[in-house]
Amino acid sequence: MKRVKIFTLLSLLLIIFVGCITVDNPATQKREVYFIDDNTEVMIGKNMAESIVRENEMVYDRKLLSYLTSIGKRIASLSDRNYLNYEFYIIREESINAFALPGGYIFVHSGTLEDLDKDELAFVLAHEIGHICARHSIKKLQASLGVNLILAIALKDVQSDLVKKAIDVMYNVIFLGYSRQDEFLADSLAVKYTIKAGYDPRSGLSLMEKLKKESNSQYTLAFLSSHPPIEERKKNIEAKIKEYYKGG
């Protein structure tokens, strides 16, 4: 009996080791361990994107989509995960709102395009791309699904039920907001990416002021999260702008 338990434990450890991916993440500047590879991440994001498109009224105006995509692709091409195929969508909603799905899928409310100038929109997209580059949602997914997910990924046996469960977890992660640290990092990366792409990073400050006025909209569930407070985000953005130009 003991031999069986030892064999099972060793097998489990071997499976986890084989399925483990160690990445030097330039976005976080840390060496990180993942059990979800890029292909699986994209699969999860694609399933979520298709679900969101089915359940919402989408905007398919070519001019607007071209405008959004051109800014987003420009920033994404200079990001820390520029190898992903980023896709951009517009949901017909009046509020200022945006959110990112795993694998490079980014949704923006139509009100965002109406109320923000080009540099502010660029900052929003850079922030969401920052979440993707830092793999914030994937880390939360791994923590939430635990050993079952690790084993399935390691065995390359991602069943539909597991994908559905992963999607449910992702919805909670994205729409309930990220941690203070995650939001600060996404803002910091937005400063970095907007500067590299030729946009004004100070747009992040004017964006924060506009978001204050939108505090009662649906945006409070995503970009304008209750953690951290807006004033703290502004201070962080200001500090990162100074730091970036000082270093340059």
Q: What layout of secondary structure does this protein have?
A:
Blueprint: H1 2-19, E1 21-25, E2 30-34, H2 38-55, H3 62-76, E3 87-91, E4 98-101, E5 105-109, H4 110-115, H5 118-134, H6 136-154, H7 160-176, H8 180-197, H9 203-213, H10 230-247
Parallel strand pairs: 3-5
Antiparallel strand pairs: 1-2, 4-5
Helix pairs in contact: 1-6, 2-7, 3-5, 5-8, 5-9, 6-7, 8-10, 9-10
Provide an overview of this structure.
- With 248 residues, the chain is mostly helical.
- Helices cover 63% and strands 10% of the residues.
- It has helices at residues 2-19, 38-55, 62-76, 110-115, 118-134, 136-154, 160-176, 180-197, 203-213, 230-247; strands at residues 21-25, 30-34, 87-91, 98-101, 105-109.
- The strands form two sheets. It has a three-stranded mixed β-sheet, sandwiched between helices.
- β1 and β2 form a beta hairpin.
- α9 packs antiparallel against α10.
- 37% of the residues are buried.
- Residues 1-18 have low confidence and may be disordered.
Entry summary:
The protein is mainly alpha-helical. It contains ten helices and five strands, in the order αββααβββααααααα. It is globular, with a radius of gyration of 19 Å.
Main attributes?
mainly alpha; 3-stranded mixed beta sheet; 10% strand; disordered N terminus
Count the beta strands: 5
Radius of gyration: 19 Å
The low-confidence parts are 1-18
Shape: globular
Strand order of the largest sheet: 3-5-4
What's the total helix number? 10
Q: Largest beta sheet, briefly?
A: 3 strands, mixed
Beta-strand percent range = 5-15%
The helix/strand order is HEEHHEEEHHHHHHH
User: Could you estimate the helical fraction of the residues in percent?
Assistant: 55-70%
SS content category: mainly alpha
Query: Distance between the terminal alpha carbons, to the nearest Å?
Result: 63 Å
What average pLDDT do the residues reach? Answer: 82
